[in-house]
């Protein structure tokens, strides 16, 4: 279905069009642009002329911003497609039925069944939805580890609302984020340690007065035991990670004695395919992206620090989360969890956290 583009968005498109040099370095970088946009300057020209767009196209963008990093004019198609998604959804709800998966994720993730903010410390650990769905055991282990180092630490099992934001559903995002911040304030938490790069970014961007620390920065700054692993890994950087987080992961891997193939940080990490929730609306593009990403990785073992990236890459590689290596040591490769398992994991984690806070 065609969407009539708002005049304010047309102004942004016009600005991009005037700046664009037509070099197509962006389309060479991005599977989505290459397949659906083909030629950047003509695409922008056609939008300006027709003042309309197929209302599915903006939802095929992973929001990784890799296009901006290669563009000599600094154009960010991720920014344009996000504005278009807001325009299409009218800041409320995506019109695409396939996004029900995300709507449910947002609805249930912050319900009383799965969410929790507990503890007496002003410092809290926030694992993020994907790590909690992937492995409650790992969250439990890292939480107890942090507790042993800090004496006390609170826990936040809530979503920051980033999936809603990535669909342009700004109203939903704001209500989820406000709910999160209210719970944090009520619990007198002013410092959050998070294992999720999206939570990190969302909290930093929206709550400048809150102290936010990446778990990877924290772990790279303390003594960690050497692991006895002989395999070599390719580090898959999360596209939402800041440079400082990418450096911390490499420091941490060095401390743990993990052999890595790519010591240099990636200046424009690609999306694993889950960004922008593209996997829900265009499974084919998601799979193509995973295959392209995997074809560029020489090692069969991949080391990630995002449970979402781990799941996406485990379709083609032996992908491990760095916490798998720290706590399990032996390399037991796991396929991605199905939906029921993921939700039951989150429920189990909530029960565990409730129980240990009742005991203490
Ligand atoms: S890389 Fe930048 S300048 Fe080159 S075509 Fe893409 S948007 Fe235009
Ligand atoms: S933000 Fe990422 S997925 Fe979107 S157009 Fe840019 S490079 Fe492609």
From TrEMBL:
MF (Gene Ontology): 4 iron, 4 sulfur cluster binding; metal ion binding; oxidoreductase activity
Cellular component per GO, a single term: plasma membrane
The keyword NADP is assigned to this record: no
Domain Cysteine-rich: 123-204, 236-310
Superkingdom of the source species: Bacteria
The entry's keywords: 4Fe-4S, Iron, Iron-sulfur, Metal-binding, Oxidoreductase
Family annotation (InterPro entries): 4Fe4S_Fe_S_CS, Cys_rich_dom, HdrC_iron-sulfur_subunit
Gene3D superfamilies: 3.30.70.20
Name by which UniProt lists this protein: Succinate dehydrogenase/fumarate reductase iron-sulfur subunit
């Amino acid at each position: 279905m065609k969407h009539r583009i708002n005049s304010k968005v047309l102004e942004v498109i016009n600005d991009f069009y005037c700046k664009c040099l037509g070099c197509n370095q962006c389309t060479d970088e991005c599977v989505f642009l290459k397949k659906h946009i083909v030629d950047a300057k003509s695409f922008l020209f056609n939008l300006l002329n027709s003042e309309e767009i197929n209302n599915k196209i903006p939802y095929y963008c992973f929001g990784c911003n890799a296009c901006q990093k290669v563009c000599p004019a600094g154009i960010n198609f991720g920014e344009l497609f996000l504005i278009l998604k807001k325009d299409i959804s009218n800041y409320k709800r995506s019109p695409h039925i396939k996004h029900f998966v995300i709507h449910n994720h947002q609805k249930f993730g912050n319900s009383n069944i799965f969410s929790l903010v507990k503890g007496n410390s002003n410092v809290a650990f926030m694992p993020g939805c994907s790590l909690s769905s992937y492995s409650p055991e790992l969250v439990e282990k890292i939480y107890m580890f942090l507790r042993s180092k800090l004496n006390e630490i609170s826990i936040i099992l809530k979503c920051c609302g980033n999936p809603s934001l990535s669909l342009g559903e700004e109203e939903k995002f704001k209500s989820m984020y406000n709910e999160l911040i209210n719970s944090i304030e009520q619990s007198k938490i002013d410092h959050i340690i998070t294992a999720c790069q999206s939570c990190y970014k969302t909290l930093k961007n929206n709550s400048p007065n809150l102290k936010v620390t990446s778990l990877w920065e924290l772990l790279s700054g303390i003594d960690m035991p050497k692991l006895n692993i002989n395999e070599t890994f390719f580090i898959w950087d999360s596209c939402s990670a800041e440079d400082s987080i990418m450096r911390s992961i490499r420091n941490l891997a060095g401390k743990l004695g993990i052999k890595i193939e790519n010591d240099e940080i990636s200046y424009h990490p690609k999306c694993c395919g889950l960004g922008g929730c593209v996997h829900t609306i265009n499974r084919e593009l998601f799979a193509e992206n995973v295959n392209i990403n995997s074809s560029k990785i020489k090692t069969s073992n991949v080391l990630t620090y995002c449970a979402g990236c781990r799941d996406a890459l485990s379709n083609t590689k032996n992908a491990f989360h760095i916490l798998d290596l720290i706590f399990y040591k032996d390399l037991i490769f796991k396929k991605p969890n199905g939906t029921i398992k993921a939700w039951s994991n989150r429920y189990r984690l909530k029960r565990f956290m409730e129980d240990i806070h009742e005991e203490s």
